[in-house]
Amino acid sequence: MHILAISGSLRAASSNTALLRAAAVLAPVGVVISLSTSLAELPYFQPGNYDEPGAPAVAAFREQVRRADAVLFCTPEYVFSMPGVLKNALEWLVPSGELYHKPVAVWSASPSTTGADQAHAGLTAMLRVMEAAVNEGAALQVGQVSGKVNAQGEITDKELAESLRTAVAALAQAGNTTNSAYQATQGIQT
Ligand SMILES: Cc1cc2nc3c(=O)[nH]c(=O)nc-3n(C[C@H](O)[C@H](O)[C@H](O)COP(=O)(O)O)c2cc1C
């Protein structure tokens, strides 16, 4: 079971990326979580423009998403929205459809008490339009994140660590169910 983790923050000291790294450590046996390549490598989305210099980065990103059993997003909020770099990345997946029926979970984190709720709602809505299988049971909004992650990117809040663990397990379960259903349609026995 492989979960691709995509952070909406480009900051080296990002709390959102720290949550995804912590999730990789807390994941149950048999669940591997890896971070996607930086979204900053992707060119700006233009419909139909697949011959531009950034095309290899787009192809590599699409392949990472295609190969994942499930995708875990964690996003900050800028001016009440998800960061443009994350929306841009998702726009590249619209025509190629890698997220179609893919189990996904939306996490968001912010130093404010809101837990980046507007970005969370916007990202969830976009993923629904793309017909990803949004897993509500694996969703998380983390408010006041600055007091819950230390300078080394470690989770210092026990309740948060437990929430991450539960959410990852829910997403992994969704990924396993989807895999089993797919294998049944293909006549594959495990
Ligand atoms: C230009 C700008 C706009 C922001 N707007 C919001 C916002 O609307 N809501 C919010 O909760 N935080 C907002 N923030 C704070 C971000 O949530 C904060 O920078 C956060 O740490 C970014 O996540 P990261 O640690 O993963 O990089 C804003 C920050 C900046 C620089």
UniProtKB/TrEMBL annotation:
Pfam families: FMN_red (PF03358). Residues 1-143 form the NADPH-dependent FMN reductase-like domain. InterPro entries: Flavoprotein-like_sf, FMN_Rdtase-like_dom, NAD(P)H-dep_reductase. It comes from the Bacteria. This is NAD(P)H-dependent oxidoreductase. It comes from Hymenobacter guriensis.
